[in-house]
Amino acid sequence: MQEQPNEVQGTRYSPTSIRATWDGTGSVEDASRALGFSRAKGYDLARRGEFPCRVLRIGRSTRVVTASLLRVLESGEPEYNSARS
């Protein structure tokens, strides 16, 4: 049985792919994978207000702003969520 290429490390989470497939926001899980850490770590950082890009709380869900994620991926510099000042 052959192993499929790992999409997480491939083009699935590249800025080009994210621009083409994501709307204005994306899930914390997908954004965490794009940034190279686990879902649990992503939600922990979002809860503490330390996720590397802008995070929105909409009702009971937490969403990552796509434009902010793309800036972080392209620059390599965090753009911390300022929700908790």
Keywords:
alpha+beta, 85 residues, 3 strands, HTH_17, single chain, three-stranded antiparallel beta sheet, Arc Repressor Mutant, subunit A, Helix-turn-helix domain-containing protein
Characterise this structure.
It is a single chain. With 85 residues, the protein is an alpha+beta fold. The chain has one domain: Arc Repressor Mutant, subunit A. 41% of the residues lie in helices and 14% in strands. The chain has four helices and three strands, in the order αβααββα. A three-stranded antiparallel beta sheet has the order 1-3-2. Strand 2 and strand 3 form a beta hairpin. InterPro entries: HTH_17.
CATH topology: Arc Repressor Mutant, subunit A
Instruction: Give me the CATH architecture, please.
Output: Orthogonal Bundle
User: Which consecutive residue ranges, at least 5 long each, have pLDDT under 50?
Assistant: 1-9
Question: What portion of residues is helical?
Answer: 40-55%
Shape: globular
- Walk across the major sheet and give the strand order: 1-3-2
| Number of helices, where a helix is a run of at least 4 consecutive DSSP H or I residues | 4
List the helices and strands in order: HEHHEEH
> What is the CATH C level class, in words?
Mainly Alpha
Mean pLDDT over the full residue set? 83
The gyration radius over C-alpha positions equals 13 Å
Strand content: 5-15%
Distance between the termini: 52 Å
Count of beta strands: 3
What composes the largest sheet? 3 strands, antiparallel
Structural class: alpha+beta
Protein name: Helix-turn-helix domain-containing protein
